[in-house]
Specification:
Helix content is 64%, strand content 4%. The protein has a two-stranded antiparallel sheet with strand order 1-2. The chain has a single domain, classed as dinb family like domain (Four Helix Bundle (Hemerythrin (Met), subunit A), Up-down Bundle). The longest helix has 26 residues. Belongs to the DinB family.
Length: 156
């Protein structure tokens, strides 16, 4: 694997480990907590986070809106165990996807269904950003709304 991709995957490992630690401190009942009406509950946010590596992996390959809608129809995780299992599976799938890319593949541009064009490597950077963004949301929900500070390191 390209050394820059290895570094990006190292960052994904860090964010996934910290998310896993936070999930481990929750009960399945906590998943129903919804700090803001009309926004994700903790469980819905975690379900979204767990789907990101697979969903964004499809986007990296130029999946159409219809393909993404079909993908999201298959996303259903209701317990902490299901969320963590899917998160780790989807991460492994994304890593295998990138391990098979040549340098040419990494620097080939693909376009998302909504019209954004990036190289596959740039999409990987977006995936890292996406994961850290939602981890920050989860941490803020737990700390500021529910006074459940997980007391974990968020960065190395």
């Amino acid at each position: 694997m390209n050394m820059y991709c290895q570094s990006a995957f190292h960052q994904l490992e860090i964010v996934i480990a910290s998310i896993s630690e936070m999930v481990g401190q929750l009960s399945d009942e906590d998943l129903a907590l919804r700090p803001t009406e009309g926004k994700y509950s903790i469980g819905e946010l975690l379900e979204h986070i767990a789907a990101i590596p697979a969903a964004d992996g499809h986007i990296t390959e130029g999946a159409s809106k219809e393909e993404m809608e079909r993908f999201y129809e298959t996303v259903s995780m209701k317990t902490k165990d299901e969320i963590l299992e899917r998160l780790f599976e989807n991460f492994s799938q994304l890593k295998a996807q990138f391990e098979n890319y040549t340098e040419e593949h990494l620097y080939t541009k693909t376009t998302s269904w909504w019209g954004v064009t990036n190289t596959r490597f740039e999409w990987l950077i977006q995936i890292v950003s996406h994961m850290y963004h939602h981890r920050g949301q989860l941490h803020a929900m737990l700390v500021h709304t529910y006074k459940k500070d997980p007391e974990i390191l968020l960065f190395e």
